[in-house]
């Protein structure tokens, strides 16, 4: 689902809200999550999951084309861990991609 699809779903489910209000709500939620992660805070949405920031140490990588050693700087990366309820709902939903079979 894309951001615009999310906004369309929310607008359909909440016809009393204007499209501009739905857009502002979605933008505000995403901005608050992003800002909290940028400050190094953890964001937990009960029943959905938790967003955290993990540090990746500096290392030496390889250029896949040439095989040459390349220094890779230390960096912070966002990490998402799904909550129990989300995992259960996803697993109960069956296959979501072509070519997959139910377990």
Determine the CATH topology.
HU Protein, Chain A
Main-sheet strand order equals: 1-2-5
**The CATH top-level class label:** Few Secondary Structures
Individual helix count: 3
Low-confidence parts, pLDDT < 50 over ≥5 residues?
none
CATH homologous group name: IHF-like DNA-binding proteins
Mean pLDDT: 91
* Total number of strands: 5
What is the share of helical residues? Answer: 25-40%
Determine the structural class based on helices, strands and strand pairing: alpha+beta
Tell me which CATH architecture applies here: Irregular
Distance between the termini: 24 Å
Word description of this protein:
By secondary structure, this protein is an alpha+beta fold. It has a single domain, classed as IHF-like DNA-binding proteins (HU Protein, Chain A), CATH 4.10.520.10. A 3-stranded antiparallel β-sheet has the order 1-2-5. The protein has a two-stranded antiparallel ribbon with strand order 3-4. A hairpin with a 3-residue loop joins strand 1 and strand 2. Helix 1 crosses helix 2. The mean pLDDT is 91.
């Amino acid at each position: 689902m894309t951001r615009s699809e999310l906004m369309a779903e929310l607008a359909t489910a909440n016809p009393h809200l204007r499209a501009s209000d739905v857009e502002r709500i979605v933008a505000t939620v995403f901005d608050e999550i992003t800002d909290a992660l940028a400050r190094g805070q953890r964001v937990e949405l009960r029943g959905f999951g938790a967003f955290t920031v993990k540090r990746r140490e500096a290392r030496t990588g390889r250029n896949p084309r040439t095989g040459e050693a390349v220094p890779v700087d230390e960096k912070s990366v966002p990490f998402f861990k799904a909550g129990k309820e989300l995992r259960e709902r996803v697993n109960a939903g069956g296959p979501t991609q072509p070519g997959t079979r139910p377990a």
